[in-house]
């Protein structure tokens, strides 16, 4: 293991002591961070979505901002705006909360489309345009958006075409009884202000070094072919199974292939291997594809979800 691999493993272990029973979530947040991507996190209230992201932020020497999305938020509440400075007699740009290394966009589906777009544009372009001028976002820039699947009233679905800008769409479930006990124990300790062992935060340079190292992981031709076939299969599932004919309106874009490539390599690296196996691809494929497959009206009416299409494709597309 390299020095940086050790540091990231320590970070992962620490996060797992703070976010109980969510090893998958922790791993995927780290994959997103190392892939230089953004993540959308969906789960019922109270599942420690906000906590997971805030804890990650405390473990990195980086600037963290939280934006609580509400129906009355304006795009400029995210990007910032030009303000008039009377003493100087001119306008200057005041940065909005998106100017940070880690940005928590909490309950993103509570703000209308215009506001969501302001954030999604900043995510894709890594810059903000205000008053005809462009302002760059920092080199380490990761947005973690959360949404609650239960509330439909007063929420605005994220535009499907823009969901592609999230590297991963992570879904989390309710914990089991054993985990629930451990959470209780942790929170009681916190309430009693019991000090947990402090974590020495990683620097931004550490993260950048890890990002360089993950690029050296080997992806064989056979594995690459498998990945490409999986993505192509989302576009033409009927070629693989008659059962899937008429279910998918749009399949995943090349962004999905690029994401699979990056994330499976990082998964291999986090597992201490220097080459990608099908297991690495399977570990990330749902989070990468589920928001990139648009089902037909017919499929939606049948109550089919993108996850079941992906499950089918994994069964049908031959393993290398
Ligand atoms: N898996 C967990 N590990 C640790 N704490 C948890 C876990 N699940 C819930 N909690 C506790 O529940 C609280 C609510 O979490 P929060 O992050 O506000 O939830 P969400 O943002 O998903 O609604 C947390 O502050 C934490 O104390
Ligand atoms: Mg929350």
Summary keywords:
Rossmann fold, five-stranded parallel beta sheet, 13 helices, 320 residues, binds adenosine-5'-diphosphate, 2 domains, alpha/beta, single chain, two-stranded antiparallel ribbon
Structure description:
The protein has two domains: 3-191, 3-Layer(aba) Sandwich (Rossmann fold); 215-316, Helicase, Ruva Protein, domain 3 (Orthogonal Bundle). Helix content is 45%, strand content 15%. The protein has helices spanning 3-18, 23-34, 49-58, 76-79, 113-125, 160-163, 177-191, 204-214, 221-235, 254-270, 278-289, 297-301, 306-316, and strands spanning 39-42, 64-68, 80-85, 90-95, 102-106, 127-130, 133-136, 142-147, 168-171, 248-250, 294-295. With 320 residues, it is an alpha/beta fold. The structure holds adenosine-5'-diphosphate and magnesium ion. Magnesium ion (MG) is lined by residues 49-50, 106, 146.
């Amino acid at each position: 293991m390299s020095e940086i691999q050790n540091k990231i493993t320590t970070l992962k272990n620490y996060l797992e002591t703070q976010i109980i029973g969510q090893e998958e979530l922790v791993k995927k947040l780290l994959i997103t961070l190392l892939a230089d991507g953004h993540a959308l996190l969906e789960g019922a209230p109270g599942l420690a979505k906000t906590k997971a992201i805030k804890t990650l932020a405390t473990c990195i020497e980086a600037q963290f901002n939280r934006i609580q999305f509400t129906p009355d938020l304006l795009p400029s509440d995210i990007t910032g705006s030009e303000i008039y400075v009377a003493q100087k007699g001119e306008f200057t740009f005041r940065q909005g909360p998106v100017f940070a290394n880690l940005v928590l966009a909490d309950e993103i589906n509570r703000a209308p489309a215009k506001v969501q777009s302001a954030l999604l544009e900043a995510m894709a372009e890594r810059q903000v345009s205000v008053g005809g001028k462009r302002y760059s976002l920092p080199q380490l820039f990761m947005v973690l958006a959360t949404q609650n699947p239960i509330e439909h009233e007063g929420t605005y679905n994220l535009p499907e075409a823009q969901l592609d800008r999230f590297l991963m769409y992570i879904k989390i479930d309710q914990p089991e009884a054993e985990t629930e006990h451990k959470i209780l124990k942790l929170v009681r300790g916190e309430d009693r202000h019991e000090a947990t062992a402090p974590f020495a935060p990683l620097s931004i340079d550490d993260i950048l070094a890890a990002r360089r190292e993950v690029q050296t992981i080997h992806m064989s031709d056979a594995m690459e072919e498998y990945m490409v076939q999986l993505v192509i299969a989302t576009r033409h599932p009927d070629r693989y199974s008659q059962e899937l004919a008429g279910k998918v309106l749009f399949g995943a874009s090349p962004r999905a292939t690029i994401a699979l490539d990056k994330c499976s390599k990082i998964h291999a690296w986090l597992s201490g291997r220097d080459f990608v196996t099908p297991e690495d691809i399977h570990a990330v494929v749902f989070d990468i594809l589920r928001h990139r497959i648009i089902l037909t009206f017919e499929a939606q009416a049948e109550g089919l979800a993108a996850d079941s299409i992906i499950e089918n494709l994994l069964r049908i597309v031959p393993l290398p």
